Amino acid sequence: MRPARSGLPKGWPQGLVYITAPVYSRLCAAEVQKSLHTPSAVTDVLKVPSGPSPLARITKIGNPSHPANGQSGLFAAQHLPPDTFIILYLGLFHTREDADPDSDYDLSLDRELGVGIDATRMGNEARFINDYRGVGPPGPNAEFREVWIDAGRGKMERRMGVFVLSAGKSGKRAKGIAKGDEILVSYGKGFWSERQKEQDAATDADS
Ligand SMILES: C[S@@+](CC[C@H](N)C(=O)[O-])C[C@H]1O[C@@H](n2cnc3c(N)ncnc32)[C@H](O)[C@@H]1O
């Protein structure tokens, strides 16, 4: 897929900031940033092209049986073999202190440091990746993996990347993700139990 001429990916909503590198919150101090730039033992360093990804496209979901009908999702723009790096998850890098507890786009990068990546107001195509539950396939076809990237001038930076799942020992996922299929991860049970608690609290408040 060719990116839109504006430099934004096709389907990017107006009013949302598209970023190609992390933005650090005021509380995400230099000390925290330093630990995100200092690898202890690095095996692989990814060189990631900046700008809209040719591998995936944002698509509006118009399917009443999809649990995120009316919202958007991220779909494969070409066949993606197992373990393919798809895209980085970008957003506002923040700490525990300035986390937004109501965010639906917050991904943890480092639990010990308390650093998360919130793509509510700014991010890239990865913010549109839905959870597999209720969509149809029996499980996810992609996952988040921590990566180190080559940030240029000899600098390495720690990020979160989205990868196609491995083929598996029995090879049951050897096909990877077919062109046109939705890229689906698991947000984890914690995300959905938190959501359930919020809904229960709202119902209790209404009654
Ligand atoms: C990170 S966003 C995913 C992109 C979102 N669909 C959009 O268009 O902005 C997470 C939100 O998507 C929706 N979502 C994602 N996967 C879902 C699923 N399996 N079932 C129901 N809602 C889902 C929920 O509203 C969730 O809070």
From TrEMBL:
It comes from the Eukaryota. Coiled coil: none annotated. InterPro entries: SET_dom, SET_dom_sf. Residues 54-188 form the SET domain. This is SET domain-containing protein. It comes from Aplosporella prunicola CBS 121167.
